[in-house]
Amino acid sequence: MPSMDNKVCVVTGGASGIGRASALKLATSGAKAVVVADIDEEGAKKTVELIEAAGGTASVKTTDLEAPEQIGALMKYTADTYGSLDTLVNNAGVHEMYWTDETSVDKLPLEIFEKVYRINLRSVFLTTQAAAPYLRSSTNDPVIVNAASTGAFTGYPAAGAYGSTKAAIMQFTRVAAVDLSPHIRVNAFAPGTVDTAMVDRMLEGAGNREDLEKTMTATHLVPRMGKPEDIANLVCFLASSEASWITGATYLIDGGSLAWRGSN
After folding, report:
1. Per-residue pLDDT reduced to its tens digit, 86-142
2. Residue 261, in any domain of the structure
3. Is 151 helix (H, G, I), strand (E, B) or coil?
4. Is 20 helix (H, G, I), strand (E, B) or coil?
5. How does DSSP classify residue 223?
6. What is the CA radius of gyration of the chain?
7. Which CATH number fits the domain that encloses residue 190?
8. Which one is catalytic: 82, 134, 162, 251?
9. Is residue 156 annotated as part of the catalytic site, yes or no?
């Protein structure tokens, strides 16, 4: 099992889903501490409770990722509280359907498109900039792990903002790996359909939830939705020293969906 070797970690979007599972996995794999950063304070507190119940150390830093000053405060809080910042997991992300049913590219309101970009892409730029000085000071294999998506590789309907931000994350990861080398590693993970609140919201809005769920998983060679814990295992590996020769890479974790694009 990958060991986090007493690293201090920040996980954005840690109040639920993949972020919560990743924070818990890092904390129970030897991290010194995990700071759960999310605008959802109650959800973040629940994540911390789960970590502490499992014997780990964690705290909440309520953070609006659209606010640069709050992002800077997040990194300072982490270093001041725990003595360093060694791992940044940029997990936070949103889909346009959070705010509108008009999600096709010809109907999507500009303000929603821009909001998705601010949270999914601009925030990763801001967190990377804010964390970089602390990560450069780290002597414990400093690393950034970003959240991409299978939506970066293929065109999903009514996901123009979401998919394009995730494609941009892949390229940003490559460039950041170059710019921050040799001291800081930067990688990304690209999940397929995972059983999270985001996917659940999509299913709830469907005319027939069961049919849509079957459609969403029909391309999976492993015939089920992913679990947040599946993704957390990869995040922990990429954040650990076991991945010390990996940088600038994006790892697909999609149940084999993009391997064939057929339908079961």
Report:
1. 999 999 999 887 677 888 899 999 999 999 999 999 999 999 999 999 999 999 999
2. no
3. helix
4. helix
5. -
6. 18
7. 3.40.50.720
8. 162
9. no
